[in-house]
Amino acid sequence: MNYPSYAEIALPTRLQHFIGGTFVDSGDTFANHSPIDGHELSRVCEARQSDVERAVEAARSALQGPWGKMSVVERAAWLHRIADGIEARFDEFVAAEVADTGRPIQQAKALDVARGIANFRTFADLIKTAGGECFETVGADGDEYLNYVTRKPLGVVGIISPWNLPLLLFTWKVAPALAMGNCVVAKPSEETPTSATLLAEVMRDVGLPAGVFNLVHGHGPNAAGEWLTRSPGIDAVTFTGESRTGSAIMKAVADGVKNVSFELGGKNAAVVFADADFDAAVDGVVRSSFTNAGQVCLCSERVYVERPIFDRFIAAFKQKTEALRIGSPYEAGTTTGPLISRGHRDKVLSYCRLAVEEGAAVVTGGTVPSFGNACDDGAFILPTIWTGLPDTARTVNEEIFGPVCHVAPFDAEDEVVRRVNDSPYGLAASIWTSNLSRGHRVARQIETGIVWVNAWFVRDLRTPFGGAKLSGFGREGGRHSMDFYSELTNVCVKVI
Ligand code: NAD
Ligand code: 6OD
């Protein structure tokens, strides 16, 4: 079955800001292009600094309203209404994600839009059951005190998100920020503005109080993103994107000493021990390397395979990678779509050339496929496997963020732990072994925020999510999000 119907779902062709409960058109626009065939999908309003400031003022003024003061039961009901609103327009959200990114329809359904809904429902449920800390304290004088913690909203939160999982990552921050009673000004990536605009329509249609959720479109440096981070009216910034951008944002917020939460880049490793369930490991590494054309921050770009199974692994990995179906998401059976843009593909292709210069043997891929149809104007690249690179190669150390990975043999557990950790990044790792003691032992030594053993990208939204080193700091998820998005006050009362 083909999915032309998703290509035919009408999506907005002029994307506006949503400020103070109203859609706002500003003068300049930029084009949003399809990565599938390059055609123009929409014109997007580019926020001026005054638009960003209006959005921040709208959020500040909504802070004075009922939003942050209502009972958690009421606020949870609002979050469920938003989730219901996404669910009611499920296919439009799927169509938006597919049009903006070219990802397979099944992935947009099962991962992106499903998670957009789950992000709201999870935090709605969490706030209803979360308690606070409380301590009974005996003072030096023998008097007794009760210490308890109250949570207040942080205030106005600036949210800046990337293009690779647009709705998932946008709502991963919007939902907990609203759940904790904050008002937000959110900027999606300029590459993927559509699902955030649909979300603003949902916010309007459910009647969310004006100013609680504001959306501005535009670019990053010297544009909407930077102006948002520099606005004196925001109280915190939560950002997902490149480590370099995180560093720029940190400088921008330094003068105001604003709180930040950063989910940044990665150069993640997969480690396959000889005792692993071989087929599960090969399938797992195909997924962890090439899901979303390698454009998931958790994807593995470094694969280490224990030497006795190295040759067999390479043969099976090559065969399963070459069986992936690259192409338009509107064709049945497509497993792998394009990169986000021609510009990003140029970057990935430059790393493909560099890998060869650095001594790589190309097992498969590294080139642009030819379709003989409109997809030739898209941003496709074949999934790519290299071997033979030294650990010092730039292609083994720098985040590339495409469907590329290097596979290297290893001989000993402590050696592979050292090589995995010898990275400026520390986001995620996956370990494949049938020896769970080993899995646990290795997991404890790996310097990343997340380690999967015999799994990849399994997410429980209550767990802490984030990275070490250049991959960011702070954790979001469950109570960690609740802590980031609220101001805690300890109240100490003399009771006896
Ligand atoms: P990016 O950093 O280029 O852009 C992300 C967002 O920041 C966009 O909305 C952009 O407009 C904005 N921006 C850019 N410069 C800015 C500035 N100076 N001030 C304020 N805002 C600015 O990242 P990207 O290319 O959109 O996304 C890919 C990157 O994101 C990869 O490095 C990937 O690893 C990372 N990522 C990390 C996670 C995680 O959870 N750790 C998740 C997804 C993506
Ligand atoms: O699943 C999540 O909560 C999450 N933040 C995923 C990030 C994926 C990066 O591309």
Please explain how this structure is put together.
The chain is globular. It has helices at about 5-10, 50-65, 70-90, 90-100, 105-130, 165-180, 195-205, 225-230, 245-255, 280-290, 310-320, 340-355, 395, 415-420, 435-445, 480-485; strands spanning about 15, 15-20, 20-25, 30-35, 40-45, 135-140, 145-155, 155-160, 185, 215, 235-240, 260-265, 270, 300-305, 360-365, 385, 405-410, 425, 430, 450-455, 470, 470-475, 485-495. The protein contains 16 helices and 23 strands. The strands form 6 sheets. It has a 7-stranded mixed beta sheet, with helices on both faces. Strands 10-9-8-11-12-22 form a 6-stranded mixed beta sheet, sandwiched between helices. Helix 5 (about 105-130) packs parallel to helix 6 (about 165-180). Strand 2 and strand 3 (about 20-25) form a beta hairpin. The termini are far apart. It has 2 domains: about 5-265 and about 470-495, Aldehyde Dehydrogenase, Chain A, domain 1; about 270-460, Aldehyde Dehydrogenase, Chain A, domain 2 (3-Layer(aba) Sandwich). The chain is about 40% helix and about 20% strand. With about 500 residues, the chain is of the alpha/beta class. The longest helix is centred in the first third of the chain and has 25 residues, at about 105-130. Nicotinamide-adenine-dinucleotide (NAD) binds near residues 164 and 221.
Average pLDDT over all residues? 97
Q: What's the β-strand tally?
A: 23
Q: What is the CATH topology of the largest domain?
A: Aldehyde Dehydrogenase, Chain A, domain 1
Structural class: alpha/beta
Question: What ranges have pLDDT less than 50 throughout 5 or more consecutive residues?
Answer: none
Distance, first to last CA: 73 Å
CATH class term of the largest domain? Alpha Beta
